[in-house]
Amino acid sequence: MNKGFKHWFINVYWYHYKWVTLVGIAVIIVLVSLIHSVVTRTEPDITVVLATESPMTQMTAEPFETFIGEIVGDVNQDGSVSVELQALNINTDTQIGSANRMLLTALLSREDVHLYILDLETAEDFESGDFFTPIEGQSLPYTRVDAALKHIGVPLAEDTVIVAGLGNRTGDRRDEAAKVLAALIGKNDGNAD
Question: Could you give the count of Cα atoms lying within 13 Å of 67 in the half-sphere of its Cβ?
Answer without folding.
Answer: 23
